[in-house]
Amino acid sequence: MALAGALVLTGCATGPASNPSVSPSSSVSPSSATARGTDPLAEFTKVATDSCDKANAEGVVENITDDGKQAYKVIMTAKAEAYQDYSAVGVDPGGVTEIIYEAYAFEVCYFAGVIGLATEGGTDVSENLTVTYDQATNSYSAEEDAEMAGEVQTTRYFIDDAGLMTKVDYPTDTDGPFVRTITFGAPGAEDLKILQTAVDELLSSTE
């Protein structure tokens, strides 16, 4: 299985030299919520893999809100649609942009990378990551221990019937009720313009 998204998003970025592959710990591949919960870690690995693969193939936008107010947005084009070899950018409500170099910045790809790297390194990810499934909300909660995340941290991933991430929240975050809403597919014209402008400014500053 190909990596659920290359970790490095641009040709000029620094990052892992290889693109590790993600291998679920079992062959579980539930097709609906009713089949989920038997092996949450394996199921969540597939959710993470499939979601990041789709983001890399088609593009994705993650809107981040804080108590219902827009706080940040991260935008990724399909790799084939990269602009000047750059495919991702973040932007705050004031229009300040930042080029994103690694897929870790996107929740749809974060755990695909973490689990993939652990698998390649021969590490049992279950030693540092606990995943549970809640059928009532059709969501997986991933709890990273202090060794993995620096502190115990829980992230909850809501999925659709196809097993793709749709929304993410952070139940243990004391800073506020942050929520990421995930939209797969080619970013719209306005979002593409944000990426193109950010890249043009970056490249002009290095001339």
Report on this model:
- With 207 residues, the protein is of the alpha+beta class.
- It has a single domain, classed as Clam (outer membrane lipoprotein receptor (LolB), chain A).
- It has four helices and nine strands.
- It has helices at 40-58, 107-120, 146-149, 189-205, and strands at 60-66, 69-76, 88-91, 97-99, 129-134, 139-144, 153-159, 165-169, 178-184.
- α1 packs across α2 (107-120).
- The chain starts with 39 loop residues before the first helix and ends with a helix.
- Mean pLDDT is 83; it is low at 1-6 and 11-31.
Search tags:
207 residues, alpha+beta, outer membrane lipoprotein receptor (LolB), chain A, nine-stranded antiparallel beta sheet
Q: How many helices?
A: 4
Average pLDDT number: 83
Distance between the termini: 40 Å
What's the SSE pattern?
HEEEEHEEHEEEH
Please tell me what the overall shape is.
Answer: globular
- Taking all Cα atoms into account, the compactness measure Rg is 17 Å
Helix content: 25-40%
Strand content: 25-35%
Structural class determined from secondary elements: alpha+beta
